[in-house]
Design brief:
Layout: H1 2-61, H2 63-168
Length: 169
């Protein structure tokens, strides 16, 4: 049993040494990768710094143009504010004209509605009168027809009596 523990201890010792070797080599690789990444970052930073310096030099050289453009922007803003004021005035004028026109349209619409109602009443009264006249005329026509028939009957009777008297003589 002692040999078993000794061989187990040797196996564990070699396993520990192998693990330590593996971790050391991977640690070295990670350290090398970290150093390479830091060099790339440093190169990028240096390029950025160089570009920033070049930009500062160009910016200093173009300051005159920047100031001129700034003055143009101020003048443009002033013109824009004047245009907005004029536009607001025009819109107010248009709105008052529209309101005035709307009042006129409303008044005309009310007047037209009143006239339409009057015409509707007159047409309705005219229809009623025409209908009543039509009924009256129909009744009078029927009365005349009845009277004509009575007269025809009387004429026939009169004619027959006259014919009878002539025949008797």
């Amino acid at each position: 049993m002692k040999k078993f523990f000794m061989s187990l201890l040797w196996v564990l010792l070699f396993a520990a040494l192998g693990a330590m070797y593996y971790y050391q080599t991977t640690f070295d690789d990670r350290l090398i990768k970290t150093v390479n990444r830091s060099k790339r970052i440093e190169d990028k930073y240096q390029g950025y710094t160089d570009n920033l310096h070049d930009f500062d030099v160009r910016l200093i050289g173009h300051r005159k143009h920047i100031n001129q453009n700034s003055q143009r922007f101020f003048a443009l803003e002033k013109d824009l504010n004047e245009f907005k004021d004029q536009h607001s005035s025009d819109i107010f004028y248009i709105n008052t004209r529209i309101d005035s026109l709307a009042g006129i349209v409303d008044a005309n619409q009310a007047s037209l509605r009143s006239r339409i109602d009057d015409v509707d009443k007159k047409v309705s009264n005219l229809r009623r009168t025409v209908t009543q006249n039509n009924i009256r005329a129909t009744q009078q026509l029927q009365n005349l027809t009845r009277d004509i028939k009575k007269l025809q009957n009387q004429f026939i009777e009169l004619d027959s009596t006259v014919v009878k008297k002539k025949v008797k003589k």
